[in-house]
Amino acid sequence: MSERYAERGVDEKAPDVGELTPPDRTLMGPGPSDVHPRVLKAMSTPLVGHLDPSFVEIMDEVQELLRYTFRTDNQWTIPVSGTGSASMEAAIGNLVEPGDTMLVPTNGYFGGRMKSMAERAGGEVVEVDAPWGEPLDPVDVERGFNEHQPDVFGFVHAETSTGVRQPNVSELTDIAHAHDAFVIADCVTSLGGVEMRVDEWGVDAAYSGPQKCLSCPPGASPLTLNDRAMDKVLDREEPARSWYLDLSLLEGYWGDERAYHHTAPITNVYALREALRLVAEEGIEERWTRHREVAGDLKVGLRDLGLEMNAPDEYWLPSLNAVRVPDGVDDAAVIDRLLDEYDLEIASGLGDLEGDIWRIGCMGHSARPKNVEYVLAALEGALAEQGY
Hints:
Layout: H1 3-8, E1 26-27, H2 37-43, H3 53-70, E2 76-82, H4 84-95, E3 101-105, H5 109-120, E4 124-128, H6 138-148, E5 152-156, E6 158-159, E7 164-165, H7 169-178, E8 182-186, E9 205-207, E10 219-225, H8 227-234, H9 247-254, H10 266-282, H11 284-304, E11 320-324, H12 331-342, E12 344-345, E13 347-348, E14 357-361, H13 369-385
Parallel strand pairs: 1-12, 3-4, 3-5, 5-8, 8-9
Antiparallel strand pairs: 2-10, 6-7, 9-10, 11-14, 13-14
Helix pairs in contact: 2-10, 3-10, 4-5, 6-7, 10-11, 11-13, 12-13
Pfam families: Aminotran_5
Family: Belongs to the class-V pyridoxal-phosphate-dependent aminotransferase family.
Keywords: Aminotransferase, Pyridoxal phosphate, Transferase
């Protein structure tokens, strides 16, 4: 035992911790978003066992609702136990084998995370370059394939760090499939809020997080793989390096067998089921339209304040609005002021854009006109205090 811990000893008194009373925030950052009251209510319902016949029925329902939301018929569509990073690592860690080459983007923070996960899976990583704040150019992707012949290609459909949406997804998947490569799509900030069509656009595997456009607490994260991708998972020469995220083992639990693998986060699955019910009730295309229209009002209001969007209109990501910080304005002071005075959360930039942008989410239950009005009024006040 280190000297530091030896000196502390054991406190014999029980901790005096009061009742849980977190602040009631309006969540307009890059996630989590406001949770719908029906989802919170679902989380308060009684637990059953993760192999209980009633829970097996719930599993079936969640899978069917996920297929609707992903716009896919993939049999292998599940919620991974964990946050969005868990579904991300499940996709990459199972499709990238030692010796495989993966082509990843450099145009945002989460392309870098793809790189790290692929390397940890034993893959060799090559990059397709694009500046932060711009989408990938299919010409550059084609060049990357011709030069490196990668086995797997990953792209970020909705880059949370830059507020950029990747257009022309089908062009990218066509290039990859012409080279017999697998395509992995990061849909963390788009699923359920921005148009994403897994089957029609030729995506082999896609993952997301529940806390963004689905307005669900993190803990059970969407993942889908088509038959071609799952065949690769099942035909691997050596098992995936993560036992917990090994999809060939998880198939036994989420497939027809429903055999024990681990204890599923039951309450989180309840929550995801209710969040997906809300998607289905609204209609997925109507939901895409709502996000685009409400976020469009936000974009107009920001421009009325004299603020500049980070992404051009043709690449604008409705669910995550990246706004340039004006010269002479302290971005962190504005964020702190909104949190302290208005109980309103927005976020600063990541990586190459740290200090240069604010990231304002417009996702799920947060994508409502009254929230847009609130964030615009609060932002106007906070900027005025700095003499803007």
